[in-house]
Specification:
Helix 2 runs parallel beside helix 4 and helix 7 packs across helix 8. Strands 1-2-3-4-5-6-7-8 form an eight-stranded parallel beta barrel. It is α/β, with parallel strands linked by helices. 36% of the residues lie in helices and 18% in strands.
Length: 239
């Protein structure tokens, strides 16, 4: 059964209270104020080992402009990721990063600079990129493409990172929308789900969990085993 980790794009309230409802939160170093490293390490210790911190790299990195500003922002972000023992690191590129050959090389080069030990490296493009272009480039650099599973098909892979933007702002998320998302997460090992613009993200979490749990409860038919020709050897009883 798929392990679902669902949360919000920013910490709301106290972390200990937050983690009772959600098991994932995004942190955005440089762009948003964060505590010192000692406090971040205390955050890590205050939540269960299964709680997931995801670090979204800042705009100075996502713009792929190079130079000292990018290098400093990346170094600061990796320090944050190390302090909270981040499970995911996300490179979000703006619409200005179009699907040109030069930009593909720049995205690949930046992603290669992110340490991979125990970390899921993700890439979230915006703008004119087609889904097949996103999937192909992400695969070539061993990254997980970030898509909206409420709207788009999820590229193949054991791990999914999805940002749900298409749910709208209504508090009532339809059962059909939750089932559609669950269909796209089935069969994966892990799914990291960020709910944007939803006052009732906890309901989305419960709905996805229930939809995927039904797969576990379905009776599994026993496989039919048929002998292959030539594999059975009859021995002479007189020998």
């Amino acid at each position: 059964m798929t392990r679902i980790c669902l949360g919000l794009p920013a910490l709301q309230g106290d972390l200990r209270t937050y983690q009772k409802r959600f098991d994932l939160v995004e942190l955005r170093p440089v762009d948003n104020a964060l505590p010192r490293a000692s406090k971040l390490r205390a955050w890590r210790k205050s939540v269960p080992p299964t709680f997931v911190f995801s670090v979204v790299l800042p705009r100075a990195v996502g713009e792929l402009a190079g130079g000292d500003a990018e290098a400093t922002a990346l170094a600061q972000s990796l320090e944050v990721a190390n302090a909270v023992e981040a499970r995911c690191i996300v490179l979000a590129t703006p619409p200005s990063i179009r699907p040109t050959l030069a930009n593909r090389k720049r995205v690949a080069a930046l992603l290669e600079r992110i340490p991979r030990d125990g970390v899921v490296v993700c890439w979230e493009p915006s703008g004119m990129w087609e889904l097949d272009e996103i999937a192909a480039l992400a695969k070539s650099v061993r990254a997980v493409p970030v898509v909206d599973a409420a709207r788009d098909a999820v590229p193949p892979g054991a791990v999914v990172y999805t940002r749900l933007r298409a749910l709208g702002t209504s508090a009532a998320v339809s059962a059909s929308a939750i089932e559609r998302i669950a269909d796209r997460l089935r069969g994966r090992r892990e799914a990291f789900v960020i709910v944007e613009g939803k006052p009732d993200a906890a309901r989305v979490k419960a709905g996805l969990g229930a939809a995927l749990a039904r797969d576990r409860d379905k009776p599994q038919s026993a496989p039919v085993v048929r002998p292959s020709a030539g594999l059975l050897i009859a021995e002479d009883e007189e020998q």
